[in-house]
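Dig into my protein:

:::
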Amino acid sequence: MPEEKKITTKKYIYAKGARKSSVAQVRLFEKGKGGVEVNGLKLKEYFKTVALQDVLLSPLKLTNHLKDLDITIKVHSGGQQGQADACRHAISRALILLDKELRSALKAEGFLTRDPRVKERKKPGLKRARKSPQWSKR
């Protein structure tokens, strides 16, 4: 007997966000109860510190959508802070697709801007990206 595939008929909004080398893919389910799932774990299990949880939920708090949306997130690469910022970026983009009028509030807080800062590559002849060996006159 073949296995039955799980079919979800819920409508969702998809968006992608990034920060440093972290990439987050977000699905917003419109008629939800405020549940947030990150890589198959609950929010508090994946991001253990309150500061990172607040970073991720800040666009929802700003737009008063904290209790009426279910969110599933797939995030990979980078560290915890970069992943939380990538999730925030993706959630902000998804909220705009949900309601265009939220754009001005999210833009004012800087949630729609992808932070482009990444680690600079090491240059040949140098110890790190910019640190050079000690110079001696003789």
Q: What stands out?
A: The mean pLDDT is 90. The chain has one domain: 12-109. The first strand starts at residue 12 and ends at 19.
